[in-house]
């Protein structure tokens, strides 16, 4: 798969942009409507028969379901867009995470918010990282699957997932964790994954977590925070993120991590609004969840 990812596809820019939009649409439909339509038996049979990887077998089935001719008229789209976007992952690479190992999430509900354990089925497709943009302008979503079932903790609002410990949330939070230092504030609580890892760092003095929902804070304070090794570093504040940023950042914090959007689709305006504070507070290091993907959504040169 590596050469299909790195090699210039040598197509006109307007066709590259059309294929970018086409790929996003294909994955959106599959992930939202039938993420488990391709199963273990299908994948293993095709991979064995054709002597190809299971990731390529997955891509072949997805192409067929979408009516694409992978070796015909749609060969370029399949080879340079669809195929390099799909990968088989190992669950142990994520379940070995320190938060995953040490924090036990009960089934609990406060108001419209709920803690619970959910799971990905074997070979169920999921987003596993930010978009990748190649040198020739291809915009590639990162889609993964596991061979085995993958249980994960989740916090839901009115039955809708707000944060989970699926690979995407973990991988896309890691850059902020690595950069965190000094007096840290994070906008958005979720399961406290960022706060946990930031507090573990010796160079982080304290972590202030700002969330607008008292129920989310109560769930976290009751069921999750007591399990933190460095809970003494954590301070919880119920407030709107922008109200806090307007009045409390100057002179009090060295590092900001903003994670107040559900996904890149609803995050664009919030991201741009939060970016304005970088001008007001140039001495504070700002980071943003899903920033690479958000930039892709905002970059009209990538879209048809």
By oligomeric state, this entry counts as: single chain
The main sheet comes to: 5 strands, parallel
- Overall pLDDT confidence: 96
How much beta, percentage-wise? 15-25%
**Strand order, largest beta sheet:** 10-9-8-11-12
Q: What is the straight-line distance between the termini?
A: 26 Å
Global outline: globular
Structure overview:
The chain has helices at residues 2-6, 13-33, 40-50, 54-65, 75-82, 92-95, 98-102, 167-179, 193-200, 214-224, 241-248, 264-275, 277-280, 291-298, and strands at 86-88, 108-110, 113-120, 126-133, 139-145, 150-157, 160-164, 182-187, 204-211, 234-238, 255-258, 285-288. β2 and β3 (113-120) form a beta hairpin. α3 packs across α4 (54-65), α8 runs parallel beside α9 and α12 crosses α14 (291-298). It starts with a helix and ends in a 6-residue tail after the last helix. The strands form three sheets. It has a five-stranded parallel beta sheet, with helices on both faces. It contains 14 helices and twelve strands. With 304 residues, it is of the alpha/beta class. The longest helix is centred in the N-terminal third of the chain and has 21 residues, at 13-33. 43% of the residues lie in helices and 23% in strands.
SSE blueprint:
Blueprint: H1 2-6, H2 13-33, H3 40-50, H4 54-65, H5 75-82, E1 86-88, H6 92-95, H7 98-102, E2 108-110, E3 113-120, E4 126-133, E5 139-145, E6 150-157, E7 160-164, H8 167-179, E8 182-187, H9 193-200, E9 204-211, H10 214-224, E10 234-238, H11 241-248, E11 255-258, H12 264-275, H13 277-280, E12 285-288, H14 291-298
Parallel strand pairs: 1-5, 8-9, 8-11, 9-10, 11-12
Antiparallel strand pairs: 2-3, 3-6, 4-5, 6-7
